[in-house]
Amino acid sequence: MAxxxxxxxxxxxxxxxxxxxxxxxxxVLKTESxxxxxxxxxxxxxxxxxxxxxxTGHVIRSHHESEIAVRxxxxxxxxxxxxxxxxxxxxxxAARLLLIALITKLSDTLGDSDSCVDHIYTANRIIxxxxxxxxxxxxxxxxxxxxxxxxxxxITKPGRSFGGLLLIHPLYVASKMPFxxxxx
Length: 184
Prior knowledge:
mainly alpha, 50% helix, elongated, disordered N terminus
């Protein structure tokens, strides 16, 4: 038995026969999802420069380490206007990842998985952007943490735990994406 929201937002019982979708419905949902993803991309591109993340450094992966500590995740390191702005970006990224997961699932269901290559590439870029915010969320002083990269194995002056709490949901969403490499 399935449920749907009624006109007054109360739950109404629905028979299974009413919940089956034909390919036309799935195509419409996929088209609308792709349009929403384009609007998300436009939102991202239209932000003021001060609101956008700024690359402040890069972490290069050491070949001799089998397990990489959080602050040593390879890639760029971003800084933000403040922690709230960083969190808004990661919430946006998580929402966009969920939307891309829906698009890829619909494409697979419709037998059109070849059309997902660009979306999967975008999802990988979104994950890298999310990871680039981790050090900003966790360190008390990002510049000091970046300067200590060659000599330290951990964040010497961690920030308040609030930054880490803000990362939990976005990183959880990212970890559940079925189309991303397991090492990410």
